Amino acid sequence: MAAPKVAVVGAGVIGLSTALCITEACPSCSVTVLSDQFSPNTTSDVAAGMLIPHTYPGTPIHVQKQWFKETFTYLFAISNSAEAAEAGIHLVSGWQVFKSTPKQELPFWSDVVLGFRSMSEAELQKFPQHRFGQAFTTLKCDCPPYLLWLKKRLKATGVQMYTRKVADLWELHREYNVVVNCAGIGAHQLVGDEKLFPVRGQVLKVHAPWVKNFIRDGDGLTYIYPGIHRVTLGGTREKDIWNLSADPGTTQDIFDRCCSLEPSLQEARDIKVKVGLRPSRQSVRLQREDLSQGGFKLPVVHNYGHGAGGFSVHRGTAKEAARLVQECIAALKSSSSRAKL
Ligand code: FAD
């Protein structure tokens, strides 16, 4: 069999990181990324990019923890390298605060982030409406720079990238041996997945360079995440809403909620509003499927449905998708050598 041809559909953080893991796991593969949008026009560009996991109710916790750990370890190494600034990866410390003590005081990811501990009384004094809090250090991706960095790595390994809207994965069966579906919310239409739904998120990106620590309300709805150049203020979670237009009333509400956590934000300048649709599911769809029509087969690997936590687990799920691609290629090789006998 000649160099296996692999197409990755989608150029958000999931598609680009999956393409990179495939080139690492299968250096003899010829990898192509096909996407109707690239950075800065993907959901991944809107995200805050904080490594604080979202929980997928349909996925075992030990699997989610493994995905998070692999992602954290990978990005921690980048943050400690000369690549950090270009990749937009940095460590950030801060607080997650609660109005009452949560049922689960130790989240499953508490021993993956750095220095996780309960907040001291002195720290809690900064948040008079809150009774309990956790302090830790985690990583943050500045999303557009990270996507550009991934693209640069892919180009350096010879990966081709084309702007193309795929109407049906089957249309790729003549050109490619394996197709990887990383279409995010686009998979709703592309593969008709009714279990996939949008959770609309609106955020503000502001200039407030004095804000150095992250602050997250324990319900996950209000947050202040400082990046290298701008601070992300959030947010909203609106299930089944497909509208990508910013709502001015919501902008004011987000700004007010964030100012009540960090009053100095009243001085924030240059407010930009962004909206994205989280590709949400009970569990990430990370599996093989063999499509077949008229005696032809097309092995597909799905890797989509990362909801509110795509950045937090992207490297872990990309590695698993690359392993599934290797399985597909091994199966193709063994069936082509059987056919020659
Ligand atoms: P996308 O970025 O949407 O990429 C999908 C790609 O597929 C796009 O390139 C699209 O053009 C392409 N595509 C779709 N359909 C087709 C088709 N038919 N043909 C060709 N191409 C197609 N996660 C975190 O971990 N931490 C955070 O702090 C965080 N904050 C967030 C804040 C907000 C406001 C939002 C909206 C999300 C946030 N997320 C966060 C979640 C994160 O953004 C997503 O989980 C992640 O971006 C999903 O990546 P993706 O590559 O699957 O999707």
UniProtKB/TrEMBL annotation:
Signal peptide from the UniProt entry: 1-19
Gene3D superfamilies noted in UniProt: D-Amino Acid Oxidase, subunit A, domain 2, NAD(P)-binding Rossmann-like Domain
Descriptive protein name: D-aspartate oxidase
Cofactor(s) the protein requires to work: FAD
PROSITE patterns recorded: DAO (PS00677)
Pfam families per UniProt: DAO
Binding sites annotated in the UniProt record for D-dopa: Y223, R278
GO term, biological process aspect, one: L-aspartate catabolic process
Protein family per UniProt: Belongs to the DAMOX/DASOX family.
